[in-house]
Specification:
mainly alpha, 6 helices, globular
Length: about 90
């Protein structure tokens, strides 16, 4: 989208609490097998499948990139590498 298309647009809503929590969880390291899935269930109240659906959508959201560029860019690289290997 070029500058002319951006002019006059309403700013998008900021990331919600759940979206920020997903990105925060992705910044953390996890010790053993199952630790991340346990944290997803206990801290976010989500099934891991739903969590990864939300995360994947966040990686394409420019608001997420603005909120946490280091994490989003790292995860985009990981995703792109995995897609290329298929």
């Amino acid at each position: 989208m070029d500058q002319e298309q951006w002019e006059g647009r309403e700013p998008r809503e900021p990331l919600g609490d759940r979206e920020r929590a997903v990105l925060a969880l992705e910044r953390r390291g996890f010790a053993g097998p199952g630790a991340k899935e346990r944290a997803i269930r206990e801290e976010l109240g989500l099934a891991p499948v739903r969590y990864y659906q939300l995360l994947n959508a966040l990686l394409d959201d420019e608001r997420a990139l603005a909120h946490d560029p280091v994490t989003v860019n790292r995860l985009r690289r990981v995703r792109d590498t995995r897609r290329a290997e298929r």
